[in-house]
Design goal:
This protein is of the alpha/beta class. It has three domains: 146 residues, 3-Layer(aba) Sandwich (Rossmann fold); 135 residues, no CATH class; 67 residues, RNA polymerase sigma factor, region 2, helix turn helix motif (Rna Polymerase Sigma Factor, Chain: A, Orthogonal Bundle), CATH 1.10.1740.10. The protein is 47% helix and 15% strand. The chain contains 16 helices and eleven strands. It is globular. The protein binds NADPH dihydro-nicotinamide-adenine-dinucleotide phosphate, 1-deoxy-D-xylulose-5-phosphate and manganese (II) ion. The site of NADPH dihydro-nicotinamide-adenine-dinucleotide phosphate (NDP) has 28 residues, from helix 1, helix 6 and helix 10. Belongs to the DXR family. InterPro entries: DXP_reductoisomerase, DXP_reductoisomerase_C, DXP_reductoisomerase_N, DXPR_C, DXPR_C_sf, NAD(P)-bd_dom_sf.
Length: 382
């Protein structure tokens, strides 16, 4: 049976790798819709290759330009957030791959879930900001959310056997490019250095998050929502080789680990093939070539973002949305060389400190808190 797919964020790292998977199994997929932020050159290329009936571009000016460029094709070009939402709820689409970066994914994800779609979710910021809303809507509408994030795909697969008797989820972290650095060294690191992840080639925002350990903090909150497990039962283990992507520990002392080469096409393929497994010709794990696999505790003194995320998650309500928004702005400022690396956690902590938490927030509360946090970080950074 052909799976009908829409990809939001098709021009990004996850989006392009999703299309690689689709290329490999082209007889199994039909691409009905694509969406990107600003990169209309690539979106045009993708549209000419996959011939979706609808594409969307977040930036309205770029959308108008793409409309002109694609004038010879029978394709509708939508724009803005509403364009992304329209694609997410398209009646013919069965699987929505949510691969945009940032909380901008929240509304389209809610649309897809409310329309009862299967969502292959890479975009972790959505669950951080709006996890309770998204999971509640998924339960009510019977929508399936399949994790694409490597750690969560790993846990999902570890849990295929036993969902009872879990003692903890063990999320592995590479430790990023600055593992072992002192505070003094961290003060001087540059965006260029932070963008050199030891094991993964990813978009810029998530790569900086990996360097600060905020990525792992966001993933802790993501795991809390995907697997309905308390924060006390989610532990982060630094494993610099990124071979074990996460583990589940059980009350009888058993630990089930998921391993693979660090290649995002594998969890992307699994989310698209689930509940089946499909053969591919990519490099497989060679145990005799693995020199060592090691583990250590995260250094939360030098990398406070991980603790800030646990704090925000435990406080709950609108606080995780504030953590996420503050982080998105702070990362942007760091990438623009406007603040130093250690300013990222400082700005997030101060912004969280100013926030009046709203418990059991609705969508409006979450979006307002997100906006308020963005303004606050900009003011604090001046
Ligand atoms: N890359 C990876 O290996 C992994 C990524 N993830 C998660 O997946 C998501 C995507 O990451 P990644 O692919 O690395 O990111 P990229 O930066 O490579 O790509 C982001 C995608 O989102 C689009 N986009 C960015 N901003 C907006 C916006 N404001 N509105 C609409 N679209 C926008 C971009 O469009 P354009 O480029 O056209 O402007 C692009 O298509 C993130 O949430 C990340 O945390 C999770 C695990 C691994
Ligand atoms: C590939 C993936 O899922 C990323 O989230 C990755 O895990 C980032 O690496 P860190 O472990 O350094 O955060
Ligand atoms: Mn991950």
């Amino acid at each position: 049976m052909i799976k009908k797919v829409a990809i939001l964020g098709s021009t990004g790292s996850i989006g392009q790798q999703t299309l690689e998977v689709i290329d490999l199994f082209s007889e199994k997929f039909q691409v009905l819709a694509l969406a990107g932020g600003r990169n209309i050159e690539l979106l045009e290329e993708q549209t000419r290759k996959y011939r979706p009936g609808i594409v969307a571009v977040m930036d309205p000016e770029r959308a108008r330009e793409l409309r002109l460029r694609l004038g010879d094709l029978p394709v509708k070009v939508l724009e803005g957030l509403e364009g992304l939402c329209e694609i997410a709820r398209l009646s013919q689409v069965e699987i929505v791959v949510m691969a945009v970066s940032g909380v901008v994914g929240l509304l389209p994800t809610l649309e897809a879930v409310n329309a009862g779609k299967t969502v292959a979710l890479a975009n972790k910021e959505t669950l951080v900001a709006g996890g309770s809303l998204v999971m509640r809507a998924a339960r009510e509408k019977g929508a399936i959310i399949l994790p694409v994030d490597s750690e969560h795909s790993a846990i999902f697969q570890c849990l295929l056997r036993d969902r009872e008797g879990i003692s903890s989820l063990l999320l592995t972290a590479s430790g990023g490019p600055f593992r072992g650095y002192t505070k003094e060294q961290l003060r001087r690191v540059t965006p260029r250095e932070a963008l050199r992840h030891p094991n993964w080639e990813m978009g810029r925002k998530i790569t900086i998050d990996s360097a600060t350990l905020m990525n792992k903090g966001l993933e802790v909150i993501e795991a809390r929502w995907l697997f309905d497990v308390d924060y006390d039962k989610i532990q982060v283990v630094v494993h610099p080789q990124s071979i074990i992507h996460s583990m589940v520990s059980y009350i009888d002392g058993s630990v089930i680990a998921y391993m693979s080469v660090p290649d995002m096409r594998i969890p992307i393929q699994y989310a698209l093939s689930w509940p089946e497994r499909w053969n591919n010709n990519w490099p497989k794990l060679d145990f005799f070539a693995l020199r060592e696999i090691t583990f250590e505790e995260p250094n939360v003194k030098n990398f406070p973002c991980l603790d800030l995320a646990y704090q925000a998650g435990r406080i709950g309500g609108t606080m995780p949305a504030v953590l996420n928004a503050a982080n998105e702005v702070a990362v942007k400022l760091f990438l623009q060389n406007k603040i130093g690396f250690l300013e990222i956690p400082r700005l997030i902590e101060e912004t969280m400190g100013h926030h009046q938490v709203i418990s059991n927030p609705d969508l409006g509360d979450i979006l307002e808190s997100d906006q308020e946090a963005r303004q606050r970080v900009k003011a604090l950074a001046k």
